[in-house]
Amino acid sequence: MALDELKASVPAYAKDLKLNLGSVIGNSPLPQQQLWGTVLACAIAARSALVLRELEPQARENLSEEAYTAAKSAAAVMAMNNVFYRTRHLLSDPEYGTLRAGLRMNVIGNPGVEKVDFELWSLAVSAINGCGQCLDSHEQVLRKAGVDRETIQEAFKIAAVVQAVATTLDAEAALA
């Protein structure tokens, strides 16, 4: 099982990450589609070939073809949006906020899965990419759709753990 192999590769000094990885994926209260879509989108966003290689097969097994594609789409469109909106927010000139973005992001309006699932995946990717404006936007959409804070927090807990595991394992590979 890929998750077990990934956990086994976490070094002893990062035992908390190993435990958290097992917990946020193995004991998640999220429905399977929300869970594995979040895991896949976060594995892509974490930019670690090792982590993606280990988690993708299990995500593919647990997701429909539409959900699998939508999770990858969430990671792709948020890679663009997070840079764009984070930069616009960080610039001291507020006039950038009045300009038309002019970027295609049609998948957000028609992701091929339930809008709530796509928004949850987009929020998790935004957490990894550190875009506060996108985090606020996706959190507001989710809350308006009736999603509770505990569910939203589950998504960014997965993001935090997947990112930390990716950082740790990539550092170990670089030092080997």
Fold and architecture overview:
- It comes from Streptomyces xiamenensis.
- It is built from nine helices and no strands.
- The chain is mainly α.
- The protein is globular and about 50 Å long.
- 39% of the residues are buried.
CATH architecture: Up-down Bundle
Q: What is the highest CATH level, the class? A: Mainly Alpha
How big is the Rg? Answer: 16 Å
| The CATH fourth-level homologous superfamily | AhpD-like
> How many discrete structural domains?
1
β-strand amount? under 5%
Percent of residues in helices: over 70%
Amino- and carboxy-terminal Cα gap: 24 Å
Taking pLDDT < 50 over at least 5 consecutive residues as the criterion, the unreliable ranges are none
**CATH level-3 fold name:** AhpD-like
> In total, how many beta strands?
0
Number of helices: 9
Mean pLDDT: 96
Biggest sheet details: none
SSE order, as H and E? HHHHHHHHH
Please identify the structural class as seen in this structure.
Answer: mainly alpha
EC number: 1.11.1.28
Disulfide bonds: 131-134
Catalytic activity: N(6)-[(R)-dihydrolipoyl]-L-lysyl-[lipoyl-carrier protein] + a hydroperoxide = N(6)-[(R)-lipoyl]-L-lysyl-[lipoyl-carrier protein] + an alcohol + H2O
Domain Carboxymuconolactone decarboxylase-like: 94-175
